[in-house]
Amino acid sequence: MTSSAPEQHRIEKGQPIRVGVLGIGSMGRHHVRNARSTEGFDLVGIADPSGDRFGVAGDMPVLPDVDALIETGIDAAIVAVPTIFHEEAALKLAEAGVHTLVEKPLAASVEAGQRLADAFNAAGLVGAVGYVERCNPAIMEMRRRVQDGQLGQVYQIVTRRQSPFPARISDVGVVKDLATHDVDLAAWVAGSTYAELFAQTAYRSGREHEDMVTVSGRFANGVLVNHLVNWLTPYKDRTTIVTGEHGALVANTVMGDLTFFENGQMPVQWDQIAAFRGVSEGTMTRYALTKREPIAVEQEHFRDAIWGVGDEHVTMNDGLAALRVVEAILKSASSNEVVHFDN
């Protein structure tokens, strides 16, 4: 697994990295804004065949395609085009020796994702995937506390990712667009891989792709996992809950808040309540966190990998692992059967 740029492709720390952004739509426009302010990045080119509908180019020309972007002499690229175009664009960037961050999911299929991971690994380039939730302050702090043993033994991870339908999405369903975030972050927080899962999907809005999914599964380390994802909820819910022997950590990633609900130390003396609750309520603590924009943190991780001084980016191998789980979710839903993974 490539963690950072090997010597032949590494740019010395502090030396500017010439960056290009391919796709300046709903996600790409934020990458453009952050690339302009990320220390060490020199934004030298942007490209989008659809033009600049959000007006982010400023005085920079909008190039027509990835080939024109490569011709600007970029060292690194951020690919934020629709998923179906990821493979073609990223393979050209790998062939040109360009470090690349591809927005999630890595590719439209496991086979395409494997080709991308292989190409960047073989070329000795940093290949990253834009799972920005790993850079959310609440999730970063949650993972740190779980790893430090605050919860003791971890029993279960539950995620909810619900909202109205986003007009920006047309090429994939809710599983590849939204559930892929939770697949990646839950495995990252659990420090494990999926062992098995069962999923059900629904098509309630008359569109080609699924707009609801429920997933129930288990990680290889025994932690239970559940994902509830849809595009049909009239409010935005982004919640991750990790429950363990000492209590529960609850992350609200919309607000970047993390709260710890500690198991109580005082026994419940009302027998009926004690039987119902199982554990008593203890102290609730909301942590004060430094809240930086996650895309800014993500770009810094990408930069540090290119400089050879960090390995906190999500690798293409990580992205491929998430893609395998995403396809297993769709397979389980279509077959109505449990999918088991070889670990």
Automatic annotation (TrEMBL):
It comes from the Bacteria. It holds the Pfam family GFO_IDH_MocA_C3. This is Predicted dehydrogenase. Residues 17-131 form the Gfo/Idh/MocA-like oxidoreductase N-terminal domain. InterPro entries: Gfo/Idh/MocA-like_OxRdtase_N (IPR000683), Gfo/Idh/MocA_Oxidoreductases (IPR051450), GFO_IDH_MocA-like_dom (IPR055170), NAD(P)-bd_dom_sf (IPR036291). Residues 140-249 form the GFO/IDH/MocA-like oxidoreductase domain.
